[in-house]
User: Fold this.
Amino acid sequence: MIKRLLQMLTPEVRGKREPAPEALRGVPPVRRLKTYQADTGFSWSYYYEGHRREEEPNAGLAYVFTLQPGSRAERRVTVLIPEGTLAGARARTLSAISSRESYALAKMHLFAVLDCEESPAPDSRWELDVDAAMAIWERLDL
Assistant:
């Protein structure tokens, strides 16, 4: 009887369920804790969790990191490199962007954001645009 009442009171949503995100690829065999000292003076510990291809809301490669801000709760952040950014970088460098180079772009963009923000929100998503990608590319001399 209680089950029937709950079914009557719970609105049924059909066809609106979001697809599960693709599983992460490139997951390190051993999860390594690393540290980054941001320009804000704050020290961040982080893990690289892996990457996946995303189609919505903007198609591209999503790199997932877990941040540990001191004694506060962990938070996951995603650095998205849209297809347009990769295409623009390919056009400017006149070469294909390897998986190692795209990871380097994502990690350096993560550091750039941490240099500006004292405490990013949990589940933050940061997109890398082509100009920022090229600035990182030149700085790393890729």
Observations:
- The helical segments are 2-9, 83-93, 99-116, 130-140.
